[in-house]
Structures are given as C-alpha cells and as structure tokens.
UniProtKB/TrEMBL annotation:
Pfam families: FTSW_RODA_SPOVE
Species assigned in the record: Flavobacterium psychrolimnae
Signal peptide: none
Subcellular location, record wording: Membrane
Membrane topology: Multi-pass membrane protein
GO biological process, one term: regulation of cell shape
Protein name: Probable peptidoglycan glycosyltransferase FtsW
UniProt-listed PANTHER family: CELL CYCLE PROTEIN (PTHR30474), PEPTIDOGLYCAN GLYCOSYLTRANSFERASE FTSW-RELATED (PTHR30474:SF2)
Length: 428
C-alpha cells in the first residue's frame, strides 16, 4: 500500500479529498439502497448495491490512475475531433435513449454487449470544457475577433447544448454557466460575453415557444423540465413536491447529530434516495455535522483546484483545471440546494458520493486530467531542482579545479624561485 501511495503523482491534497469522499459514500449508499432493494429485488438485500457501488468506485480510481499518467496536453490535440464524436452520441441518445426505472428516456444509452447504461451529457460536458480551454489558450496569441470566435467557439458550444437541452435543461444550464465562467477567466472580452448571454436567452425562449406550440415534437422530454420550473415558481402541486417534502423531512429529522448510520426513515419513501437526494439521507443519518462535513470536503477540494490552476505552467493547464474542476463543485452545490428547495429538482447527482456508474467514471476521468496537470507541475519543479543541484555540483567542481590550479601554480612559482636566486633578487 505504501509503495502504491508513493507511485501516485500529482497533487496529494486532491487525491486525499477525493479518497475521503469516495470512502464516505459507502455508508449512505448502503443505507439509502434499501428501498431499491425492496422494489427491485423484493428481498430487501442491500449488499448487492453496496458491492456494485464499491466496484464503480474501484473502476473510477483505476481510471484516475491511468489518466493521470497521460500528459494532459494530449487531450488538447484530440478535443476537437472528440467533439464530433460526442455530437453523434448525443444525437443517438436523443433519438434512441433508454428508460431506466421510468426515468427520462433521452438521457441515457445502453452500451451494446455489456449492458451498461451511460449518460452521454457527462462526457459531452467534459469534452466541451477541454475544447473551450483549447480555443482560449490558442486565441491568447492573437487579438480575439468576435466573428471568428462565433464560428470557432460559440457554434460548437451551442450545437452541443442544443443536443442536450430537450432532455436535460439543468445539465444544459450548468454547462453553459461553466463555459461563460471559463471564457471570462480566459479573458474573453466581456462585451462579447454579454452578446452571447443575450443570444442564449433569446434562443431558449424561442425553443420553449416551439416546444409549447408543437408538444409532439419532443414527447415526454421538454415537458418534464418545463413543468419542474413552473411548479418551483408557483404553488401548483406536482410530483417533485413529494420528493422535496420527503427530503426536507429527512433533513429536519437529522437535527445536529443525526439519527445514526443506517437509521434513516425517509430513505424508504424518498425516490432516488441513493442518487439525486442522497444529501438529504446524509443529513438525516449524520446530522448537520455530517452535512457540513461533506460540504467542507467539497470546498477543500475547490481550494486545491484553485491552487492547482494557479500553479499550472501553461494557460491551457490553468483553464483545464478550472473547466473540469469547478463544474464538479458547482454540481455538488446544486445537488445540495435542490435537497433544501433552493432550486427546482434537477436530477444532478452528488459527485463521488451518489450511486451510479457513468457519473462516477466521468468525474474520475476529469479528476485524472486535473491530477495530470498537477503532475506536470511537480515534474517541472523536480527538473528545476535537479538542474539546480547539477549546477551547484558543477560549480563546486569548477571551484575545486581552480583551487588545484592555483596550488599547482604557486608550487611552480616556489620551485622556480629556488632554482633561480637572481630572480628573487631582481624582484626585490
């Protein structure tokens, strides 16, 4: 184990906080899976769900380890081509998405032969953030022209979002917000950002009007998230009210210290208790202290991302850390805000804690790239340290040679004086 830890490169703080979040997830997932065990299997055995979650986490950490070995600038080279592949996957998902326990049919696809379901929007967001970071790092070399940036940057961004929007408004809004943050940090002109935001709002309003005028165009897709927003902003009862009510009961029941591990009551009534609403179960079982502890871990991870971005030796590295790290933390905040009804139900999971394979694996893939950036920083720092040591050793060698040459010259001078006494007299 010690040798394995020593072989881990990159920011040790990121490794530590990710490991703590993953280890903590075992108990809430094991506890919250009881309702799934009764509904899915009928025997109430949650051990299978725990083993499945452990396998997902194990595969996720394997992904982190493998990806962090790859130089991060390789992803810069393949980001543009990968975006086209993502568009194909998103289009296929929109048309042929699979139903999972009655969930939205257009978010997921099933991987052939192995039967694993996969949410393509998670991959799309990661590829898009790297693509935006690539453009901004390249555009820094020349002044940004808005017309050219529309073709090279914003059209690919909006095409990607257009494929995600009909089925998943929350993910679309999250990705668009993070892209805006990324371009702002990348010093894209603010006046151009304002134009893009205005265009996005107009496009969204136009899309909603079309969806309402032609409801058969997107059956059971657009209506879902439109109704969620309407129910959140009004007092109309809806299906989401039941989930929010149970989540708030769970949080209120937890109080300061919680009911204790595995003693949640609302997990038996709260849909998606092991994924979308797992934070409510955490607070119910571990109390306000447990909820604040989880929040602190995410904030500490954000702090390490900020440090990693600041230390990155290239603009692309800085933007990659921001583009892949910050959305992870923002998603966690959205998940917690939904549980306390600060936001409408979004379907966003709690990164590294909620159950689910593809979301964990994509999060781990992003973490692997971030750690690869920090690993490069360590390699550069080590090279500089080694170069300083070599320079110091070389300087010592030169000094020693000069001292030896001085000693030899002085010895020859004494010997010469001894052989030629007149030389000494003349010198006097």
């Amino acid at each position: 184990m010690k040798q394995l830890i020593n072989n881990l490169k990159g920011d040790k703080g990121i490794w530590s906080f990710v490991a703590l979040l993953a280890l903590f997830s075992f108990m809430p997932v094991f506890s919250a899976s009881s309702n799934l065990a009764y509904i899915g299997q009928g025997n109430g055995n949650t051990l299978g769900y725990l083993v499945k979650h452990i396998m997902h986490i194990g595969i996720g950490f394997t992904i982190i380890f493998m990806v962090h070995k790859v130089p991060y600038h390789y992803f810069k080279a393949i980001s543009k081509g990968s975006l086209y592949i993502v568009w194909v996957l998103l289009a296929y998902t929109l048309i042929k998405g699979t139903v999972i326990a009655g969930a939205n049919a257009s978010r997921w696809i099933q991987v052939p032969f192995i039967g694993v379901t996969f949410q393509t929007s998670t991959l799309a967001s990661m590829v898009l953030f790297i693509f935006v970071a690539r453009y901004l790092s390249k555009a820094r070399e020349v002044p940004i022209d808005f017309k050219s940036s529309v073709l090279e940057l914003w059209i690919p961004v909006f095409v990607t979002l257009l494929f995600i929007l009909p089925a998943n408004f929350s993910t679309t809004a999250l990705i668009f917000s993070m892209v805006l943050m990324l371009v702002f940090i990348g010093k894209y002109p603010v006046r151009y950002i304002g134009i893009v935001v205005g265009s996005g709002i107009v496009f969204l309003a136009f899309f909603i009007l079309i969806a309402k005028a032609f409801p058969d165009a997107f059956p059971n897709r657009v209506d879902t998230w439109i109704n969620r927003v309407d129910n959140f902003t009004s007092d109309k009862p809806g299906e989401d009210d039941y989930q929010i009510e149970k989540a708030k009961i769970a949080i209120a029941s937890g109080k300061i210290y919680g009911l204790g591990p595995g003693k949640s009551i609302q997990k038996n009534f709260l849909p998606q208790s092991s994924s979308d609403f797992i934070f409510a179960i955490i607070v119910e079982e571990y109390g306000l202290i447990g909820g604040l502890g989880v929040l602190s871990l995410y904030l500490l991870l954000l702090f390490r991302f900020v440090i990693a971005s600041h230390k990155a030796n290239s603009l692309f590295g800085k933007l990659v850390v921001v583009g892949l790290g910050f959305p992870m933390i923002f998603q966690a905040m959205v998940n917690m805000a939904v549980a306390v009804e600060l936001l409408p139900v979004t379907g966003q999971t709690l990164p590294l804690i909620s159950s689910g394979g593809s979301s964990i694996w994509m999060t781990c893939f992003a973490l692997g790239i971030i750690i690869s950036v920090t690993k490069k920083e360590e390699e550069i720092a080590q090279e500089m340290k080694d170069a300083a040591k070599r320079e110091e050793a070389l300087q010592k060698l030169i000094d020693r040679e000069l001292e030896e040459d001085g000693a030899v010259a002085e010895a020859y001078s004494i010997e010469d004086k001894a052989k030629n006494p007149m030389h000494a007299v003349l010198n006097k």
